[in-house]
Amino acid sequence: MNKIAIVTGASHPRDIGTAICRRLAADGVNIFFTHWQADPAWIDEFQMEIESMRVSCEDMTIDLSNPLAAQTICQKVVEKLGVPSILVNNAAHSAQDGYLKLDALTLDQHYAVNMRSTFLLSVEFARLWKKANLKAGRIINMTSGQDLGLMVGELAYVSTKGAISAFTRSLAQELAPLDITVIAVNPGPTDSTWMNDGIRTHLLPKFPLGRIGTPDDVVKTISFLASEEATWITGQIIHSEGGFLRG
């Protein structure tokens, strides 16, 4: 029987969430992905693409800032595919701020998606797993290296994504007896939907390997961590960013 993965934030052909879905499907994993403000025609095409890999695929349009989003997602995946064994918390909210712009609304918008949805999806997943009494569960949280360096002008993003690392470490200890590993992955700056030529020109000299990371680089790490080969890795923050030089 194929494993089932929930992947949040697969809303564009070039984003990281979409690449994660493709790679896990290629690994023989059934896919349930969430998206927001995506092109409906592309969603249909993408679902057919995933199903062409001989796995099942279901999707859901959902605003992760909704306090009930985690419960809704878990109920729907069980209804459509069964109990999931892999959760990839990939979706994120990001907006430029800085000390002159930061206010309560900006913080709340970042908190709702980056922290609350990640935290609640993780515990809802674990509750399903405990009830089903299954083995070898995986929770993989995406972060952005906030403990490695500065991100000036993105105070709300930095603070809410940085909290994911602390949450990951503590949750890993709680869920180890359930045979669920919990890991965070920092892919470094990745050339997906947010980069333009100016950003690429600025970042390229900071990559000693001579190129900027792509979603395909990210998914190799995700694929490994979701596999049986990674059973002994938990409570870790994996920095897979091609030697990116900060500062």
Textual characterization of the structure:
The protein has about 250 residues and is α/β, with parallel strands linked by helices. It has a single domain (about 5-240), classed as 3-Layer(aba) Sandwich (Rossmann fold), CATH 3.40.50. The protein is about 40% helix and about 15% strand. The protein contains seven helices and seven strands; from the N terminus they run E-H-E-H-E-H-E-H-E-H-E-H-H-E. It has helices at about 15-25, 40-50, 70-80, 105-130, 155-175, 195-205, 215-225; strands at about 5, 30-35, 55-60, 85-90, 135-140, 180-185, 235-240. Strands 3-2-1-4-5-6-7 form a seven-stranded parallel sheet, sandwiched between helices. Helix 1 packs across helix 7 (about 215-225), helix 3 packs parallel to helix 4 and helix 4 (about 105-130) packs parallel to helix 5 (about 155-175). The chain is globular. The N and C termini lie far apart (about 45 Å).
